[in-house]
Amino acid sequence: MLKGLIFDLDGVITDSAVYHLRAWNQLASEIGIKLPPEASDDLRGRSRMDSLQVILRYGNQVGKYSDDELAEFAERKNTAYRQSIKAMTRDDVLPGMLQLLQQARQQGLEMAIASASKNAPTILHNLQLESFFPEIVDPDSLQHGKPDPEIYIAAQHLLKLNADEVISFEDAAAGVTAIKAAHQFAVGIGDAQVLRHADYIVPTTAQLHLDQLEAAFDHQFQGLS
Ligand code: BG6
Ligand code: MG
Q1: Is the pTM of this model over 0.90?
Q2: How high is the pLDDT of residue 224?
Q3: Of 57, 133, 161, 174, which residue is 20 to 30 A from 69 by alpha carbon distance?
Q4: Residue having the nearest C-alpha atom to atom 6 of ligand 1
């Protein structure tokens, strides 16, 4: 039986994924790397330092920089990114998402955030969504980033639920892999090919309806029992 929802943040609750990408592209060009279009899918969901390594791989620059230089690059990107998220408001919640959260709350579903971002609390504050999410996984408490399942298992534990009692939402292939490795029901939001390992895929958040999600979830778990 469905008892909880676990959400990624960037690209699921709000379109901050585009700000991450813009800030990474800027940093990449400053160190002489031109990212190809497919890099945008590779960067989604990855922690800050993992993202930096993805960029260095694209530029054949892995191993070129000291830890201090890498930390400075990450800090530079984060400063640019924080500038972009400053002006976010309730209007930046993606279509259909607020209704979904309100309906879920009315139905008594537990909710948590499983975002790799250290900026998640700032964004939730700017979007005025803090009251929906008493439980947020602290990415600093984790050993491994997505696609490792650790963050989704941690979120499920915060909610005190079992894997077959939650639906988890992602826009990143690495995130869908993480959800499935945690044995949870995965909803992918975005490109059907990129997110093909999800249990349920919609092109945008506007197509998310709680009754339809519950029906798909029930169908899957009835099939297993
Ligand atoms: C994820 C984003 O949610 O958070 C990634 O999808 C980002 O693009 C990661 O790299 C870490 O975010 P931050 O804000 O801690 O640099
Ligand atoms: Mg995301």
Answers
A1: yes
A2: 57
A3: 174
A4: 45
What distance in Å separates the CA atoms of residue 221 and residue 218, rounded to the nearest whole number?
5
Judge whether 105 and 4 are in contact, CB under 8 Å: no
Tens digits of residue pLDDT in 128-181: 999 999 999 999 999 999 999 999 999 999 999 999 999 999 999 999 999 999
Q: Give the Cα separation of 24 and 165 in Å (integer).
A: 36
Residue 191 is among the residues annotated as catalytic for this protein: no
- For residues 151 and 114, is the Cβ–Cβ distance under 8 A? yes
Measured between alpha carbons, how far is 12 from 195 in angstroms, rounded to an integer? 13
- Ligand sitting nearest the alpha carbon of 23: 1
Residue whose token pair is 């602290």: 138
DSSP string, 40-108: HHHHTT--HHHHHHHHHHHTT-TT-S-HHHHHHHHHHHHHHHHHHHTT--GGGBPTTHHHHHHHHHHTT
**Which protein residue's CA is at the shortest distance from atom 13 of ligand 1?**
117
CA distance 107 to 124: 22
